[in-house]
Amino acid sequence: MYDHREIARAMDLFHFEEHSPGMIFWHPMGWRLYRVIEDYMRGVYESYGFLEVRSPIALSRALWEKSGHWEKFREGIFVVGSLDKDKEDLTPDYALKPMSCPAHVGIYKSARRSYREMPIRLMEFGMVHRNEPSGTLSGCMRLRQFVQDDVHIFCQEADIQNEIRNFLNMVSEVYKAFGYEKFSIKISLRPEKRLGSDALWDKAEGALRDACEALKYAYELLPGEGAFYGPKIEVSLEDHLGRSWQCGTIQVDFNLPQIFDLAFVNSEGIFEQPVMLHQAVLGSIERWIGILLESHGALPLWLAPVQVAVAPISDKSAQWALYVASKLRRNGVRVELAKRDATISKKIRELFERKIPLIAVVGEQEAAKGTVNLRRLGVSGQQEIELLDLEQELRNLVSH
Ligand SMILES: [Zn+2]
């Protein structure tokens, strides 16, 4: 079994420091990986009709009191205070957001909304802070600072089922792209203490079930496990080692629209309260990366921070190496030129230790013929291949 921290060290992705427990110092290669994932998700969200937003990471205490988070998550909230000069005490005026919901509510409320623009689907790569006990912190898997693909959909009751289907289609597309073929679905139903009428719960729970059935997904029902504010779906992926990770979720919320007095003008010109859905496909991006590293060991080509290392055997083939590297870069391939002064066997060993999927070795012979000698991570042997053919092969492989 792999430990994602060891793999991250071998690949030089990030480190932790005692000054910031539970927070990641991303190195260039780790940040590149992070951004590949973020860019990919941005594209998926755009293709499903989501609008990206960005909101502040600190919001006033009064807002968190209103949303109920101050009371319920007080222990987990990092407060930001201003120094009271007389008492030399901190007055907790603000909180670092543990989630982005109230901020997206603010964006919704910034304009008068009409049924014509519904559903409004807001998405943020939202940086959140949660003061987890230090004993529970564990690499990327549990952090105090992380980024969620945090989504809030404001819609009409009749839209719920369609939004759930949208979500399940996204989950299936995204998980497959990252190499996970299997996932399981749990639906949490009404608890004893709850908000909203039984008719509303019937409708919402029915919409969750109908969406799963329409897409022919099996699901497990968890009676009584829903939040007081609405039912939810939780999706767990199965990794290559057969382990299960809960990542995706979509939750129906009748509570926040009521607390924050949300409204839209319906087709009869009357104010109506929207339903709010909270959604995440990856969950925490940092934890997603941890799971990726542990389940894959080495990353698939489209995710690798360096996809091809070009390694010249000596100075005599340096020119050709430079040409190969720049040619591949122009095709959108993430390339590193291994210029370090070392024997070729040492270079290859070190590059593979960093889990770079492809190494193109070039010597004088290859330079004369316009080829490279290709080695693949985890595959023994080598293959002489023309630069043009390599370009062609990579064009199909570097994106997901
Ligand atoms: Zn939320």
Short description:
The protein is built from 13 helices and 20 strands. It is α+β, with helices and mostly antiparallel strands and 400 residues long.
Write the topology of this structure.
Blueprint lengths: L3 H8 L2 E2 L9 E2 L1 H20 L3 E2 L5 E3 H7 L1 H4 L6 E6 L4 E8 L4 H9 L10 E10 L15 E11 L4 H18 L5 E6 L9 H17 L5 E3 L9 E7 L5 E10 L1 H5 L4 E2 L5 E2 L2 E6 L4 H12 L11 E5 L5 H13 L4 E3 L6 H10 L4 E5 L1 H6 L1 E6 L6 E4 H11 L3
Parallel strand pairs: 3-7, 9-10, 16-17, 16-18
Antiparallel strand pairs: 1-2, 4-6, 5-6, 7-8, 8-15, 9-11, 11-12, 12-15, 13-14, 18-19, 19-20
Helix pairs in contact: 1-9, 6-7
The chain binds zinc ion.
What portion of residues belong to β-strands? Answer: 25-35%
Distance between the termini: 26 Å
Low-confidence stretches are none
Q: How many DSSP E strands?
A: 20
User: What is the architecture of the largest domain at the second tier of CATH?
Assistant: 2-Layer Sandwich
Report the radius of gyration as a whole number of Å: 25 Å
- The helix content, as a percent range, equals 25-40%
Shape: elongated
Arithmetic mean pLDDT: 93
Q: How many structurally independent domains?
A: 3
GO molecular function, one term: ATP binding
Enzyme class: ligase
Catalytic activity: tRNA(Thr) + L-threonine + ATP = L-threonyl-tRNA(Thr) + AMP + diphosphate + H(+)
Family: Belongs to the class-II aminoacyl-tRNA synthetase family.
Structure description:
By secondary structure, the protein is an alpha+beta fold. The chain has three domains: 4-57 and 102-296, Bira Bifunctional Protein, Domain 2 (BirA Bifunctional Protein, domain 2); 58-96, no CATH class; 308-397, Rossmann fold. It contains 13 helices and 20 strands. The protein has helices at 4-11, 28-47, 61-67, 69-72, 101-109, 160-177, 198-214, 255-259, 285-296, 318-330, 344-353, 364-369, 387-397, and strands at residues 14-15, 25-26, 51-52, 58-60, 79-84, 89-96, 120-129, 145-155, 183-188, 220-222, 232-238, 244-253, 264-265, 271-272, 275-280, 308-312, 335-337, 358-362, 371-376, 383-386. The protein has an eight-stranded mixed beta sheet, with helices on both faces. Strands 17-16-18-19-20 form a five-stranded mixed beta sheet, with helices on both faces. A three-stranded antiparallel beta sheet has the order 4-6-5. A hairpin with a 6-residue loop joins strand 19 (371-376) and strand 20. Helix 6 (160-177) packs across helix 7 (198-214). It is elongated and about 75 Å long. The two termini are 26 Å apart. 35% of the residues are buried. The site of zinc ion has 4 residues, from loops.
